[in-house]
Specification:
51% of the residues lie in helices and 15% in strands. It is of the alpha/beta class and 703 residues long. Helix 3 packs across helix 6 and helix 17 packs across helix 18 (371-387). It binds zinc ion. Zinc ion (ZN) binds at residues 676, 678-679, 681, 690, 692-693, 695.
Length: 703
């Protein structure tokens, strides 16, 4: 329908004219940079009081009060700013926001149209190229002397004008600055100015390789963060000698991305939380506190919540101590097993910042606990294991001699279902399911302890490079342990400091960690057997144990000595981490595969005993003697794995566990689980194709 002539004429005289008058008025408001500034401030910081706004807009002196009042009045009159009378605060209106965004668009467009150089910055803005900003970052970020900064900038500017790139971005300018710095031999400055990140191609590939993605989006984010933060660690924060040893493969660092942020293991007593809970003091926006624990329901929800919160604060393991005394206090509840299973399933989905989620271990003391309670915990755990492809929660059963036999049936059932059961035959000790000791000395440790253990030493390489000279081998080992302890000690200071600042809030607020907690440093020895065999020649098995003991003693002594200097508790351990395949691969590349004996592509970690052998073994057999001798010497902990074969019968597994519990102080009973990478179906038998969907993509894992 066409508008009648009269109608248009009539409107021209009235509404239309007043609308165009409004536009003119608004443009006149935009003419003042002061007023645009006020809008910008209210947009990002508002609502604000009169005096706050005045100060932020830079009208500081009394003389300028009138000027400020004048600008503000204009903005109010055009309804770009509104005053909330009750709160006496000013806010930007929707119209004001529109004007502001228009001003920004005009600014950007005019830069483009003018043919000037403009830069897309990493703050998602576009601004005119300004060489002064290059000088500024050279001086501020890398401490370049002003005169040199000016010279470098001039050269960069010439390049930029010469190339006339279509996409001039801040990262590109930085690349140019860095290349000019290198051309002039200023490597140190370039190092400080480096931008850490990932190539576009790698990011695209990571996002698209959905087949390898486990835990969905969480693993993509964790991987990205790890890449950036590991690079920052290796090139910017580690002492240079340690960084070089790491890159060369003399040592290994697990989870380098979280090295300077969170500890590897946390030991915490849930019984101590029972009274006061944990007050998170506003450090989490969605969880305010973990309440006190009075019933089995409280206990179960606390367990799930602890797992959720602490999984973010450790890279490898969260060890929860004293669950049995607490269950005892909570009184009998017939549905304990059921409720526990549910809590574990919920807790298992906890997020984490490490590429592999940390495991949670529940310490169950068999001595002094009522049998019905232990039975319920074991039953609840078994239900959880059946419901989970690869369990990330495990049980550490502590006992004095004999107590295991009452539960051997249930324990072997859990192990044969793919559960993670660890046995510790010394109730005075506390050991994580990886084997790490909570207390490095003989004395009592604090109730909450963090352990830093993610640095491992490549012994086979040291042995090979020592030309079968045992004394030289130990001397070189000592030379490697010292800087390792120094690096770990620096790491401990950094993390303690960050904990105080609130980066690790659950740990910091649990049982007043800052006052009563402590932190241990542990160095991990990898491939001890291969290295000793290399030094002695592969046939000489008689002197093996002698040399093994000598090597451990030297390591413990050197570490303790160095620890005295740095003021830390330092231990030596032989535990399982992710260093062994990397060491073996790097050494194979460097020296050829034949030079070092490796079994299944990785060096040995801790001790591994096939469960089938365990039934026959006697107490005086060489392997048991060796385990017990090493157990005494390794103050940081020894991991002994009882490797359960999938074809073993119920009775045999039970017999192996009883026999191991009788002869060893510490062991982890583990059976490989086969999980379909396509549909998630779990198999406890060896398979090469999924029984459900026939997919050949089968993952083999130990819990
Ligand atoms: Zn399948």
């Amino acid at each position: 329908m066409e508008l009648s002539h009269d109608y248009v004429e009539a409107k021209k005289g009235g509404v239309l004219e007043s609308a165009s008058r409004r536009v003119r008025m608004i443009f006149s408001v935009m003419a003042s940079p002061n007023r645009i500034d006020i809008l910008r401030i209210l947009n990002s910081k508002g609502p604000l009081t009169y005096s706050e706004l005045k100060a932020l807009a830079g009208f500081k002196s009394k003389k300028e009060s009138g000027k400020f009042a004048y600008h503000l009045r204009k903005l109010l009159r055009q309804s770009l700013v509104a005053l909330n009378k009750a709160e006496r605060r000013y806010t930007i209106t929707n119209l004001g926001k529109l004007v502001l965004s228009l001003a920004r668009q005009i600014e950007e467009r005019s830069i483009i149209e003018s043919g000037k150089m403009y830069v897309r910055t990493s703050n998602q803005t576009i601004e005119e190229f300004n060489s002064h900003k290059i000088i500024q970052s050279l001086v501020r970020e890398a401490n370049v002397p002003l005169e040199l900064a000016q010279k470098i900038t001039e050269e960069v500017e010439n390049k930029i004008y010469k190339f006339q790139t279509a996409y001039l971005t801040a990262p590109l300018i930085r690349e140019m600055v860095n290349s000019v710095l290198i051309e002039h031999g200023h490597e140190e400055y370039r190092h400080k100015l480096a931008r850490i990140g990932m190539p576009v191609f790698d990011i695209a590939q990571m996002i698209n390789s959905v087949d390898e993605v486990k835990n969905g989006i969480e693993s993509v984010l964790a991987k990205t963060a790890q890449t950036v933060l590991s690079e920052y660690l290796v090139f910017n924060t580690l002492p240079k000698d340690i960084a070089d040893s790491y890159l060369a493969g003399d040592i290994h660092i697990s989870n380098p991305g979280t090295w300077g942020l969170i500890p590897d293991s946390i030991f915490i007593s849930i019984n101590e939380l029972a009274e006061e809970g944990i007050n998170l003091k506003g450090k989490f926006l969605n969880v305010s506190r973990i309440g006190s624990i009075k019933s089995v329901d409280d206990f179960c929800s606390c367990l799930a919540l602890l797992n959720m919160l602490l999984s973010r604060e450790a890279s490898t393991e969260v060890f929860v101590d004293e669950i049995m005394p607490l269950i005892q206090r909570c009184g009998s509840d017939a549905s304990l097993a059921n409720k526990l299973a549910k809590a574990l399933i919920i807790g298992s989905s906890a997020p984490s910042y490490a590429p592999t989620s940390p495991i949670m271990s529940l310490n169950v003391n068999l001595d002094g606990s009522e049998k019905k309670h232990v039975d319920a915990v074991l039953k609840g755990y078994e239900t959880y294991v059946h419901a989970t492809p690869i369990p990330r929660i495990g049980l550490v059963l502590t006992y004095s001699s004999g107590a295991v036999n009452d539960y051997a049936d249930k324990i072997s059932n859990i192990v044969r279902a793919g559960g993670a059961i660890t046995l510790l035959g010394n109730p005075k000790q506390v050991r994580s399911s990886m084997g790490v000791s909570k207390s490095l000395g003989d004395g009592q440790s604090a109730s909450t302890v963090m352990s830093l253990q993610s640095l491992a030493i490549n012994l086979p390489r040291l042995a090979y490079e020592s030309n079968k000279d045992e004394t030289y081998f130990r001397a070189r080992l000592a030379l490697l342990i010292k800087p390792a302890v120094t690096a770990l000690s620096m790491r401990k200071k950094t993390i303690t400091d960050l904990t105080r600042k609130g980066l690790i809030p659950t740990l910091a607020n649990s049982t007043q960690f800052m006052q009563r907690g402590s932190a241990n440093i542990v160095v991990n020895l990898v491939g001890l057997h291969e290295s000793v065999a290399n030094i002695l020649g592969y046939d000489d098995t008689n002197n093996c144990l002698d040399v093994v003991q000598k090597v451990i003693k030297t390591s413990v002594d050197v570490a303790m000595e160095k620890g005295k200097q740095t003021g830390d508790d330092v231990g030596i351990a032989m535990i399982v981490d992710d260093s062994a395949p990397r060491f073996a691969a790097l050494d194979a590349e460097k020296y050829g595969k034949i030079l070092l004996q490796t079994s299944n592509g990785a060096y040995s970690q801790g001790m591994v005993i096939p469960a089938a052998d365990m039934i026959e073994i006697k107490k005086d057999s060489p392997i048991i003697k060796e385990c017990n001798a090493m157990e005494k010497l390794l103050n940081g902990g020894l991991s002994v794995t009882l490797d359960v074969n999938n074809t073993m019968s119920d009775t045999d597994v039970k017999a192996a566990i009883e026999s191991a519990a009788d002869m060893l102080t510490f062991f982890r009973a583990r059976m490989k689980v086969f999980v379909c990478g396509n549909c998630g179906q779990k198999s406890l038998e060896v398979i090469d194709k999924c029984g459900l969907c026939r997919s050949p993509h089968i993952m083999q894992r130990y819990a």
